[in-house]
């Protein structure tokens, strides 16, 4: 997967796939390989960091520590808003990775600092990678401001129809050579950049 398009610190990337498709594994691989700093990782499901207890929230030790990499455990949309308030006001640029971002962002309404980050962040070097299981769980501003969509195979016709409206591409005709393959869609240019294989 080394020939994936490079991700800039101002880019936003959405990884879309059903449970078990490989989206969290792909995110983990990206977190090991991208050099963007500072990198804040919101570890929703306790796989990227050492979380001391199930009800803990705050900074945690990253499983793959590196300078400028900070892991956090958050539970609520309010905690996510607080994180973005801090980042938006204290950091000139940053990159944020959130596994299952739908847990923190309402489908119909965004809190003030989250909205500011999603809709204006790319102008100030504030990008991110977000995973989600279904388009129906995703606030439109997240997808609408993304540069790339990493799309695992989906059998949900509504999701694909919605994505076709956004991309202008025939997503029903995409071919997947294996179960954990995904296509990279350049949303800025409405182009399918091809299939990539995820090694689990």
> What does the radius of gyration come to?
16 Å
SSE sequence, one letter per element: EHEEEEHEHEHEHEE
**What average pLDDT do the residues reach?**
93
Q: Tell me, what is the CATH class of the domain at 12-148?
A: Alpha Beta
CATH topology of the domain at 12-148: Rossmann fold
Number of strands: 10
| Amino- and carboxy-terminal Cα gap | 12 Å
Largest sheet: 10 strands, mixed
Shape: globular
CATH architecture descriptor name of the domain at 12-148: 3-Layer(aba) Sandwich
- Name the CATH homologous superfamily of the domain at 12-148: P-loop containing nucleotide triphosphate hydrolases
Unreliable residue stretches: none
Given helix and strand content, the structural type is: alpha/beta
Give the number of helices: 5
What features would you describe in this structure?
The protein is of the alpha/beta class and 200 residues long. The protein has a domain at 12-148: P-loop containing nucleotide triphosphate hydrolases (Rossmann fold), CATH 3.40.50.300. It is built from five helices and ten strands, in the order βαββββαβαβαβαββ. It has helices at 23-33, 77-90, 112-120, 140-144, 157-167, and strands at residues 12-16, 39-42, 49-50, 58-62, 69-73, 94-98, 126-132, 148-152, 181-186, 191-197. A ten-stranded mixed beta sheet has the order 3-4-5-2-6-7-1-8-9-10, with helices on one face. β3 and β4 form a beta hairpin. α2 (77-90) crosses α3. The chain is globular and about 45 Å long. The two termini are 12 Å apart. The mean pLDDT is 93.
């Amino acid at each position: 997967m080394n020939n994936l398009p490079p991700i800039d610190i101002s880019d936003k990337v959405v990884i879309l796939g059903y449970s078990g498709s490989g989206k969290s594994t792909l995110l983990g691989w990206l977190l090991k390989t991208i050099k963007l700093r500072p990198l804040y990782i919101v570890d929703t499901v306790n796989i990227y960091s050492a979380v001391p207890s199930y009800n803990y929230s705050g900074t945690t030790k990253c499983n793959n520590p590196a300078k400028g990499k900070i892991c956090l455990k958050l539970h609520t949309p309010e905690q996510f808003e607080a994180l973005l308030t801090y980042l938006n006001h204290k950091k000139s640029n940053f990159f944020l990775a959130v596994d299952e971002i739908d847990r923190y962002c309402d489908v119909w309404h965004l809190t003030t600092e989250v909205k500011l980050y999603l809709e204006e962040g790319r102008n100030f070097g504030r990008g991110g990678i977000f995973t989600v299981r279904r388009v129906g769980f995703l606030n439109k501003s997240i997808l609408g401001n993304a540069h790339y969509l990493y799309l695992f195979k989906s059998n949900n016709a509504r999701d694909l129809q919605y994505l076709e409206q956004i991309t202008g591409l025939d997503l029903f005709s995409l071919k997947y050579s294996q179960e954990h393959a995904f296509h990279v869609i350049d949303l800025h240019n409405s182009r399918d950049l091809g299939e990539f294989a995820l090694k689990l």
